[in-house]
Design goal:
It is a single chain. Helix content is 44%, strand content 19%. By secondary structure, it is of the alpha/beta class. Strand 3, helix 2 and strand 4 form a beta-alpha-beta unit. The relative contact order is 0.18.
């Protein structure tokens, strides 16, 4: 009888140890997940972090630091994002007007293939720079989780506004006007 009691105790010890290990693992996972979730996006009033990305279809590199002194709109988008498709024509409509006022529109694309983006660019007749964030590094740097997401950066490199979701023509015009450098 002692031998069966020892076996039961041993099984209970193994079971309890395994359960304790699982619970410790779950607690560690929860803590790590919470720390990642607390990482805040680049907020209004903060300096926009520099990044360097290639323009689609070229070897030309665009750096945010190179646009110092200009207003910059940074739009995170993808071809599969329906709201992104809705706002692209508005961006194109206002691009030349604001380009002349020293405001640059940068469309940071998160698609993995060039051909899909090139077709999209041709279909919508887009002339503003489309940058390729192939590995999502800039998206992570800016902690973007939903598309479209847009940041409006003033001439000093400070984020004036952050918008999650699609922009209407009027709202886009207003935000671009806010980041237009004074002459």
């Amino acid at each position: 009888m002692k031998e069966s009691t020892l076996k039961k105790k041993k099984k209970r010890l193994i079971f309890r140890t395994a359960m304790l290990a699982v619970m410790v693992g779950l607690i560690a996972f929860a803590l790590i997940s919470n720390l990642k979730d607390d990482k805040s996006a680049v907020a209004k009033g903060e300096q926009a972090p520099n990044f360097q990305l290639n323009k689609f279809g070229t070897d030309e590199v665009v750096s945010l630091d190179d646009l110092e002194g200009q207003g910059v709109m940074i739009n995170f988008w993808a071809t599969y994002c329906e709201p992104c498709k809705e706002e692209m024509p508005y961006m194109e409509e206002l691009y030349s007007e604001y380009k002349d006022k020293n405001v640059e529109i940068l469309a940071v694309n998160l698609d993995s293939t060039n051909i899909v983006v090139e077709r999209f660019q041709e279909r919508y007749g887009l002339s503003f720079p489309i940058l390729h964030d192939k590995n999502g590094q800039v998206m992570d740097q800016y902690n973007v989780s939903r598309l479209p997401s847009t940041l409006f950066v003033n001439a000093d490199g400070v984020v004036e506004e952050q918008v999650v979701g699609p922009l209407t023509l009027d709202k886009l015009d207003g935000y671009l006007n806010e980041i237009t450098p004074e002459t």
